[in-house]
Every structure is written in structure tokens, then in C-alpha cells.
Amino acid sequence: MTPPSISAIGKPMQIAFVPDDFDAALIHWTQAMGVGPFFVMQNIVLEDGRFMGAPSDCKFTIALAQWGDVQIELIRQENDVPSIYRGDYRPPSGAMHHVCVLTDDIAGARDAIEAGGGQVLVEGKVGANGAVIYADCGPAGTRPNAGAIIEVLQPASGSEGFFAMVAEAAKGWDGSDPVRLVG
């Protein structure tokens, strides 16, 4: 059986950025763009995280908000280890870093990525029963990062409630309390 194409894994639900100045990006998105509120989760480390096949303890902070049907994610790396947030896999500040699609079959998504010539850059566990893959889907001769990276997330149980809460908070948001810490 032929694995599905990468586009068949799922529709994009999130656009992510790795700004030079995380705090300035929060101000830009909440004030200039009117997107918010942002929910911030600090010092995340993927369980069993791997970067380019090697164990990784990349620590990062994310801020999530909803903009219509699309979630916006801002990312700041908190430690100095090789990752997709630095070096060759980090686009110029302000440029989109990756798009995220959801799946309920992370193994099938990996098969589709690899069958399409993509390279898994990062993988790890998310929560009790979730998983994530970040991949460069450009042809081997155009790597690194010929286009945006794709994140494929198999959400952990309960994630849909968190995503729904972020989306609900954006409905009719009046600009108050623009940045909210989670956890």
C-alpha cells in the first residue's frame, strides 16, 4: 500500500515563528495584529527528544494564540544546544518557521514524510500518549529547509480541550491580559 502524500496527513492548523525578540513579537502580534491572548508555556523539553537522530534536551518556551481558524505559535529556545530553532533550520527573523498538522497516526505520517523524500529532524513524546515529528520535506539536494518545516503532532489526550480553550479565548478578545502563563 502506498503511503499518503504529505498533504494528506492533515490540514495546517498552526503557523509558527522563531523571532529574534520573543517579547517584541508578542507585542507585535497582540497590539499591531490584534491576535490574542497568548498562552505561554515555559521550559518545555520533549520526552525522548531527538534531533537529527541523536538524543536532544532542547528546552524552549512557546506562546500560542488563535487567529481565526489558525493557531499562531511563537517559540524561544532557552538553552544552547543544536536544534531546529538555531542554525540552518532557522529562517530569518519574522519568517515562518513551520506549519503544524494534526494526526492520529504518527507512524503513518512518518511513512508519508519518508516516502515523499522528507527528512525527520526532530521527534519526541508529547504528554502521556502523544508524539511529534518535525520534518524538512524538501528534496535531499535542497536541504536544509528548502521550504518551511512541517510539524506533525499526534496530540496527547486532553490537548483538544487546551486548543479549544485557546480558540475560545480569542473570540471577542478585547486586548486585556494579552499574555497568560500556563502551568
Automatic annotation (TrEMBL):
**Which InterPro entries does the record match to this protein?**
Glyas_Bleomycin-R_OHBP_Dase, VOC_core
| Protein origin, superkingdom | Bacteria
Q: Where is the VOC domain?
A: 11-155
Query: Which protein are we looking at?
Result: Glyoxalase
Name the lineage. Answer: Bacteria, Pseudomonadati, Pseudomonadota, Alphaproteobacteria, Sphingomonadales
